[in-house]
Specification:
Layout (H helix, E strand, L loop, with lengths): L8 H24 L9 H24 L4 H24 L3
């Protein structure tokens, strides 16, 4: 399978942002554990910026590439969404 589209920044940057968001949450949990209450800290705000910031990039990629290379672009969009769900999972499951 040809993965030339994966070399485009609009393809891999959202995945990298999701991985960074997941690493941020896992690192925070490893250091501080599950803290409830109080104001959201810098980790929560950074996570929110990473997750929200990738939405326009995914939309840009989908608009530009789904018509030109539907199969390859579709797989990359699925990868981007799966990475986003993986970053969202600990926050949702642990009610952080």
């Amino acid at each position: 399978m040809d993965f030339t589209l994966l070399k485009k920044p609009s393809a891999w940057v959202p995945v990298a942002m999701s991985v960074a968001a997941l690493a941020l949450v896992v690192g925070d949990l490893a250091i501080y554990g599950i803290e409830r209450g109080g104001d959201e800290g810098a980790v929560a705000h950074t996570w929110q910026l990473l997750m929200a910031g990738q939405v326009p990039l995914i939309m840009y990629f989908a608009i530009n590439w789904l018509r030109q290379a539907p199969r390859q672009a579709g797989l990359i969009v699925i990868l981007q969404l799966a990475a986003g769900i993986a970053a969202l999972a600990p926050v949702w499951l642990l009610h952080l």
